[in-house]
UniProtKB/TrEMBL annotation:
It comes from Oceanobacillus halophilus. InterPro entries: Class-I_Fumarase/Tartrate_DH (IPR051208), Fe-S_hydro-lyase_TtdA-typ_cat (IPR004646). One of its GO terms (molecular function) is metal ion binding. Belongs to the class-I fumarase family. Pfam families: Fumerase (PF05681). Residues 14-280 form the Fe-S hydro-lyase tartrate dehydratase alpha-type catalytic domain. Keywords: 4Fe-4S, Iron, Iron-sulfur, Lyase, Metal-binding. This is Fumarate hydratase. Signal peptide: none annotated.
Length: 283
């Protein structure tokens, strides 16, 4: 007989609340280190100045427990649920939304969600969160959270390329999206790319890629090489930190690729701004 591990509803609420606050106050080590690295390599004096301001801003946010940006983001979750665990006291999505409500409310973080895209009335508590669920083996729940800024999300894009467009078509498309975004996505960026899947899966892959820490390459060597090549090409565009010119337009490029239909080549680009905020918790 399989024993199901029990995870309490309130434990999820409290962990999610703390993740929402930590994500906004405490820039991850990977992003902070990428700023420092960019400071060493940035060629433009103005670009260097902006990067130094980003470093200083991240330090103030961490020490004074204030958000690193006024846009505290949509709370987006990818949750891996072990098939041998059971949530006691309520549903997983209710617990996550209650955690977001608590975290954003008690942390005085800006509520950035409207309940209806047409009447635009703010829900007042940053819910509903965007929640993606993946069933996995085991008895743990792994919660990945990002506070995703609206400016960078606005400049993201998805396209169904033709298979004959090939690698050249993929690269041209990604570079065009970054060029069109210019300063509007708040560079330096983390560029998340999905290749393959189908229409909706491809967009999810682009989002998922942004949860991988900066500097961690895709395990497939061909995709890893493409990440590096694209980052070099993007950094030759000259957009620079905050779009003021320079050699640091992207801190990293992340690609997730999956199988697709013989007649299709979906590609999605999900841009993330310099406030690239992600957290992970295992219950
Ligand atoms: S896109 Fe990012 S850096 Fe720009 S305003 Fe939104 S959260 Fe802040």
């Amino acid at each position: 007989m399989i024993t199901m591990k029990k995870i309490m509803y309130q434990e999820i609420v409290d962990r999610v609340a703390s993740m929402c606050q930590e994500a906004n106050y405490n820039l991850g080590e990977d992003v902070f280190e990428a700023f420092q690295q960019a400071l060493r390599t940035e060629e433009s004096p103005v670009g260097k100045d902006v990067l130094q301001q980003l470093v200083d801003n991240a330090k103030v946010a961490k020490t004074e427990h204030v958000p690193m940006c006024q846009d505290t983001g949509t709370a987006v979750f990818i949750v891996e649920i072990g098939q041998d665990c059971h949530i006691v006291g309520g549903s997983l999505s209710a617990a996550i939304n209650e955690g977001v409500r608590k975290g954003y409310g008690e942390g005085y973080l800006r509520n950035s969600v409207v309940g209806d895209p047409l009447n635009r009335k703010n829900t007042g508590d940053n819910t509903p969160a965007v929640i993606h669920l993946e069933m996995v083996e085991g008895d743990e729940i792994t919660i990945h959270m990002t506070a995703k800024g609206g400016g960078a999300e606005n400049m993201s894009d998805m396209k169904m390329l033709k298979p004959s467009d090939g690698l050249v078509g993929i690269k041209d498309y990604i570079l065009d999206i970054v060029k069109d975004a210019g300063p509007n996505a708040c560079p330096p960026l983390v560029v998340g790319v999905g290749i393959g899947g189908n229409f909706e899966r491809c967009a999810f892959l682009a989002k998922k890629s942004l949860f991988r820490p900066i500097g961690e390459r895709n395990p497939d060597p061909t995709i890893a090489d493409l990440e590096i090549e694209l980052m070099e090409e993007i950094n030759r565009l000259g957009i620079g930190p905050q779009g003021l010119g320079g050699s640091t337009t992207a801190l990293d490029v992340k690609i997730e690729a999956e199988a697709c239909h013989i007649a299709t080549l979906p590609v999605a680009v999900n841009l993330n701004c310099h406030a690239s905020r992600h957290q992970v918790a295992i219950l």
